[in-house]
Structures are given as C-alpha cells and as structure tokens.
Queue: 2 jobs
Job 1
Amino acid sequence: MPPEQKAGATVRPAVSPWDDIAERLHANGLRWTPQRRTLIEVLKEQQGHVTASELIASCKERDRTTTPSTVYRALDLLEELGLVRHGHGHDGREEYHVLPDQVHGHLYCVGCGTTWEIRPETGAVIVDALAAQLGFDVDLSHVTISGRCAGCHD
Amino acid sequence: MPPEQKAGATVRPAVSPWDDIAERLHANGLRWTPQRRTLIEVLKEQQGHVTASELIASCKERDRTTTPSTVYRALDLLEELGLVRHGHGHDGREEYHVLPDQVHGHLYCVGCGTTWEIRPETGAVIVDALAAQLGFDVDLSHVTISGRCAGCHD
DNA sequence: CAACGCGTTGCAACGACTCGCAATAGCCAT
DNA sequence: ATGGCTATTGCGAGTCGTTGCAACGCGTTG
C-alpha cells in the first residue's frame, strides 16, 4: 500500500526534490536503505553549508550505528543524482550544500576567517572569462577562493 | 672561512632566493637545521607543482629519518617567508609550488583529470572582477577551480 | 512465503595532515 | 670549549576521508 500522497486533493505539485528519491534510486537499480533515509532526513533540515563531519554527527544522533564510510558513500551517490553538491573549504575539508539553492561560489578571507558567497552576477564574470578565453566550463560551486576581504587589507 | 661568494668578480647579484635563507632565518631568531636544509635542497630542484607527500618522499630519499610533521612545519615556515606557496588541489590535497614563478591559478578538468594553468591575463579578469565588485583581494594561487575543459564538454 | 542475486553496509587499515609534549640541539654568551 | 636559553624535532594520538573485502539484507522471482 504505497502512500499515494500525490493524489491528495490539497497537495501541491511542488514536491520537495527529496520526495521521489526512493523512486529515482529504484529506477537505477539502487536501493532505499535505512542509512540513506537517515541521511536524507538530516539533509532536509540543512541549509547553507555543512561539512561532512557535521552531517555524520547529525546522522549519529538519529542512528547511533552510523558509520562514516557509509555516509560518505551515500553523499557521493546523492551528488551523482544532483541533490547535493560538495566542494572544498579553504583548508581542503569537504563542504556540502543542498542543491535547490542557487549555485554559487565561496570566498574565504584569510584575514578574518569569514566566508562570503559570490553573488551570481559576480560569479558569472568569472565563469564567462574562463569560458571565453579557454573554453573551460567552470563549476564555481566546488571551490572556495581565498584572499582578503575589503575590511582586511593589510 | 665563510664562502663569500658575493665578492667573486664574475658572480651575478641575481642570487637564487634560496641562498640567503639561513640569514633570513637568523634575522628572525629562527634556526638553520639539517632538516630544513634537506627540504630546501629538495625544493631547489622542483619545478611546477608538488604535493606535500611527494616532498616528504624526496626528503626521505636524502635523509631516511625525515618525519612528516617536521616537513609540514618547515613548509609553513617557508611559506611565511614567501618562498613557497601552497594551495589545495581539486581533491583537497595540498600542493606546493616555488614562488619565483609567476603567480597563477589552476583549473582542474573533472572530465579528463588534467590540470591547466590560468594565464595571468585570464587570472587578472577574475581578480579584478572580485576586487571591483566586492573589494576582495583574491589569492588565485591558493585554489584549483574545477570544471570541464573545452575537450570534455558533455 | 522462501530462496536468491547483487547493491550496500560495517569494519579495518591506510594515507594525508595536525597538534601537544618531552627531549634534542642550534646558536649566542661566557 | 662550556653552558644555557629556547627554537625545533620526533613521536604518539587524533581527525578527516578513502578503499578493499566479507557479511548482510533489500527487493524481486518463483
């Protein structure tokens, strides 16, 4: 007896992108496991950036038997499905963010340690420059660019 | 009998930036140790990018007693002195390059795995864009930007 | 509803990097 | 030369992330 929620009269068609994951996994011969369910519950309530270890910690709160390698592998999978994106912070650690947000880049100030988001317009300049001059299709969301913010110049 | 090379008639004033390290260390109350000497010998013959573990391996070839933590600390020090620069590759691992080279950024193609250098002119566009729009002073050499090169578009 | 195949998990080991701490050893002074 | 101050080293422990492998269990088939 599948939960045919989509038939509910007042249910909006704007389902969260998470809602049909089970089906999407199935469609590819993949499985809907409790571990993945846990991770997705955690991801649903995330916003902004999260490090992998934060995610692992949150999963452990819900399921004490969570193991890191499983989470990492599940995240890889979700990334392939386009549901999350991972990048590296200024120190090389992994950071994830949920996709529904606008794709954006990050700026890290080595002076004050603040992380800034690169607005789409600004990002576009960078993407366009590399595209025009090298034919390179940049994935801005993957990196954190370092430097000094306006308030931290020498 | 100090090697007063600078007095040699035909010796150029263009000494390698490595030559006066011992003095520069001294000037800051730091010490000229065999471990640092080993690392610098290794660095001297490097060109392009090197990962920290490659450097450690090379140091071990010269001195089997080399310890990783010492190399990492020495590299930090040399970076403060402006002799090397470190950044993070697409996978977050550390990469070093010797400074005398033009400061440049890196591009990593997730399609073919190639790393490309961002030419200064191209880099300037990026740096200028962030400077103009956000007052942010970018250190392009620290990051590897990911994406797809011209030959690897879907 | 029991058997089965293969996608997944958990574990253990490993590699990259960091950090605290006690012992070592540069470098200057005597 | 000798001694001492303290920068540095080496080690051990710890974190983050990856990978190989054997056991497990999801989802399907008969």
Job 2
Amino acid sequence: MDLSCGWNSAAAADQEEIRRGPWTVEEDAVLAGHVAAHGEGRWNEVARAAGLRRTGKSCRLRWLNYLRPDVRRGDFSPQEQLLILELHFRWGNRWSKIAQHMPGRTDNEIKNYWRTRVQKHAKQLGVDVASARFRDVMRHLWMPRLVERIHAAAAAAAATTTEHATPVDVCHSPDPSTTTSCTAGTSSSTSTSMSVPHNHHLTAMTTSVAEAAADWSGSEQCGSASGGISDDMFEGSWSELLARAYGDDGADSSLLPDMHMAAETGEGWWSFEDIWSQQQY
DNA sequence: AAAACTCTCAACCGCAGGTGG
DNA sequence: ACCACCTGCGGTTGAGAGTTT
C-alpha cells in the first residue's frame, strides 16, 4: 500500500519522513490495534512502536477524534445543540471542557460546530458572536427554538409509541419519581420522555449538565438571565427549558417567540427583523 | 455539463503546562 | 533551577463534497 499518497514527494526519498495528511485504513488499523494491546497514552512511543510514520500528536488526535470506540459521529441532535449553547454560555471556547459533558463528542467536533454553524449565523445577523446582543439572541430565540424542536420530536415519538404500542427504550415512566436512572439536576420529570433520537445520550447529557451545575459555583453570571447566581441561572435556562419541553403540563408555547422562519434558509432560522422585534423581553 | 462558490470537518500548528532527569 | 520531552488545548487551514449559477 502506497502511504505517500503523493502529497510529500520528499517522503519517497526518506523513509523516516513524518507523514502528514489523511490517515489510511491501514494506519487506522495499526493504531487501533496498538492501543487495544497497550492502552492509550505515551503517544510518541505508540507511534514508534507501531511503526507509524506519524507524530505522537497525530496519533493521539486520530485516536481521540476518530478511532476511539465510543466516539459518535453525525449531526448534533437538538438536545446536543442546546447543550453546546448552554455550556458555551458558561465556559466560552473551552471546547475540551464542553466535550467532557457530551459523551461521545470530541472537542474538535464541537469546535467545528460552533465555528461553522453558530458563528456563521452570527455573521449573517451582523453581530459579533461574543457580543451580549448575540447572547441574547441565543438565549431568547435560538435556545427556545431548539426546545420547541425537542418537544415536537418527543411529542411525535410519544404519539407513535401510543399508536403502535411499540416498546421504546426510554426513561419515561408513568411515575416521574421512579425515573431514577434519568434524573437530571432537577428532581422533577424533566429528563423523561427521551423517546426521541439519541435518547440515551440525552440521559447522559442531562446528567452531565447536572454535574456541571454542581461544579459551577462562584463563576461569573453571564447573559441576561433572571438575576440569580449559578444554579439559578442554570435553572432558568437549561432545566426550565427542558422542563417545558418535556413537562406533562404540555409545553408552554408562550415561552417561544412567534418567529417567522427566514424563508431563504429553510432550516429554522429567522430573519433579522424577527429577532429585533423579539428583543423587547 | 461544468465552472464557481460554499460548507464541512479532519488534521495540523503553536503554545502552555506538567513531569522527570 | 534548568532543560528536554510529552501531553493537551484552542486556533487555523485545506481538501473534498455539495450546491448554485
């Protein structure tokens, strides 16, 4: 198998040349096999011992972002998107820290999501992604919108379940007090009804957020939340929104702005005018 | 059909912090 | 205390896929 792939002609003249660029299937197999046999860590040694002409850093990155068995791929669910926004509110560009609370997701993926999706739309709106204005947009429009989607998905799934009496791997219990495995930061039934795609991951996520909330003490209050500190801010956003999304009292649609989606985007974004008309909260 | 453009994401880079000799 | 090496993090880049013109 030709591993030079032609992007570094000097490599042909020097067998010890460090390879760069995309990993081949063969390299992946070698690295995965070596890690399986010897475990993670000591990446420079891994690269040498496995005979990979890669840097230790490259091996580490490839393992963490791609080869790790628990790594998840594919689009972020609305729940995950909501969690990213929430955690970014708290920690800013601390991607690795955010990733710690999103099982199976890598800091690289989250960072890419933020840059390609969030920053793109901030740019479309003509506001700085770090500005208070954009944070307000996220808190009052984007996040509720995501919750709306989560609720819609949950409702649709619930309807399907009822209609077909299909067993679904959910944490939902007729009695919320029995949903021990799904208990998030709040003791209510806010983490029930995960009968939407990735439900088991949401369970993990809500638990992670609860843990994060426990960690989160004394840090600065951010955004334009209700004026409480730490836990209050947390309660007023993630937990409350999820409660509204999943609560058995039905979602309170008054929470959600009456947004008219920007027709040109067709994917749930709203116009500049819509946003500013909703700024009177 | 094809050129131009946009978007996504894997991978690289530089830097900082930790550790051991 | 200093140095060398390793690891982890956040920012950036570029190839390729997808979309538009």
